[in-house]
Amino acid sequence: xxxxxxxxxxxxxxxxxxxxxxxxxxxxxxxxxxxxxxxxxxxxxxxxxxxxxxxxxxxxxxxxxxxxxxxxxxxxxxxxxxxxxxxxxxxxxxxxxx
Length: 98
Description:
Number of domains: 1
Distance between the termini: 23 Å
């Protein structure tokens, strides 16, 4: 899925580069969840076209988190199989639905 132009432009901006660099340095380059190598700066309040111009959301260090790729993918639910266990009406396990 292609990013909206407003978000694309923000992520290419000098302001984002500075905010990302400061967060990476303050976290000592470590994922703030698991401690492995941090690679991606995540917005805790997700960035949208409606809030990208609000510096309290887009650039605020308190809204940023340095994450490794695995933790960032987990945060966004990427590349994960969703398993739902199925039980019959009596509560007997009947198998997995993938």
